[in-house]
Amino acid sequence: RILSNSVTVLTAASDVHNATWHDFERFLDAGRGSQVSGMSELKNYFHRFGYLPNSNFTDIFDTDFESALTLYQSKLSLPVTGRLDSDTISAIISPRCGVSDSSQRTALHATRR
Amino acid sequence: FAFFNGKPRWVRQNPVTLSYALSPNNMISYLSSSDVQDIFRRAFSRWSAVIPVNFTEAETYESADIKIGFYRGDHGDGEPFDGVLGVLAHAFSPENGRFHLDAAESWAVDFKKDKSKAAVDLESVATHEIGHVLGLAHSSVKEAVMYPSLSPRTKKVDLRIDDVEGVQALYGSNPNFKFSSLQSENSYNHAVALD
Q1: Dihedral pair phi/psi, residue B3, rounded to 5°
Q2: Which residues of B touch A103 (CB under 8 A)?
Q3: d(Cα B141, Cα A75) in Å, to the nearest integer?
Q4: For this structure, is B129 an active site residue?
Q5: Between B161-171 and B122-134, two packed helices, what is the crossing angle to 10 degrees?
Q6: Are A5 and A87 in contact (CB under 8 A)?
């Protein structure tokens, strides 16, 4: 089980993960102002799970993304650092349920049939 | 614990009885159907032990309140699955009843027999998704069944106080349930994770 906050654990985790979110490991230690190619994919991840409202994203670690990241860390009971630290990256690449974390959004367009 | 927007729940005459069925056309060939049925029976029983809701196996898939199936990729609900790991499953809030698992996962019913590093415990995911079917959103409590992530080769099947308080806020308490019964059960999750 992925519990520790060491980079070694990230490597162990990636052994069993496919490419879906594996690439997010390269954002380790990124913080506000960073520009890393592919950051928009990570923003899409946060959008998908209810942390970022917009869907037109750049590769810049901006203040909106920092707020989303802080909210994510808080929601998942991670240390709230506002940075893509190893605990946060471990959580992001961990397999999970597809339902949004935002209770403000009704799950999966629920309708009564 | 948290609820979906509008706090939807199943509204039925008391006692609430919900039927469920596994899609006969969307199962996993390497899993025995009796194993899968046993797993879902146990998963539903964990929730019915704490709330006044009964779950029964539907006579037909079409008539079931809760429809369960394994699907691959884009399966028509706007939430395509993504292959091995990543998203494991999803379910719809009340009173929709759809409950989908990603067929691409290496679903395990017994980690002693399944040695895959990417094996995912079916019973843990089933118990989590039933929480969504009942109206619970994701919890921030790491030990709770309703926490959104689950690592491979980890079993987390026993409801925690957070799960119980959440679902009881929607449906009330099963008169036979005692919070003291949770304590001893919960050591199991941790023990299996260590194993």
Answers
A1: -115, 165
A2: 2-5, 137-138
A3: 9
A4: yes
A5: 30
A6: yes
Q: How far is CA B37 from CA A60, A70, B33, B123, in A?
A: 48, 40, 6, 10
**pLDDT tens, A35-82?**
989 999 999 999 999 999 877 899 999 999 999 999 999 999 999 999
Listed in sequence order, the residues at least 6 apart from B183 whose beta carbon sits closer than 8 Å to its beta carbon are none
Q: How far apart are CA A32 and CA B114, in angstroms?
A: 43
C-beta atoms surrounding A90 within 10 Å: 24
| Choice among B129, B143, B165, B185 that is catalytic | B129
Please report, in tens digits, the pLDDT of each residue of chain B (195 residues total): 999 999 999 998 878 999 999 999 999 999 999 999 999 999 999 999 999 999 999 999 999 999 999 999 999 999 999 999 999 999 999 999 999 999 999 999 999 999 999 999 999 999 999 999 999 999 999 999 999 999 999 999 999 999 999 999 999 999 999 988 885 544 445 444 444
Residue B62 tokens read as 């079409």
> Residue A54, exposed/middle/buried by CB under 10 A (0-12, 13-18, 19+)?
exposed
ipTM: 0.92
List, in order, residues 6 or more apart from B56 with CB less than 8 Å away. Answer: B17, B18, B19, B20
Pair of tokens at residue B188: 């199991």
Partner-chain residue, chosen from A15, A101, A110, that has the shortest CB–CB distance to B8: A110
Instruction: Give the E-state strand segments of chain B in sequence order.
Output: 16-22, 53-57, 66-71, 87-91, 98-102, 106-108, 119-121
Cα dihedral B25, A108, B133, A76 in deg (nearest 10):
120
Is residue B17 helix, strand or coil? strand
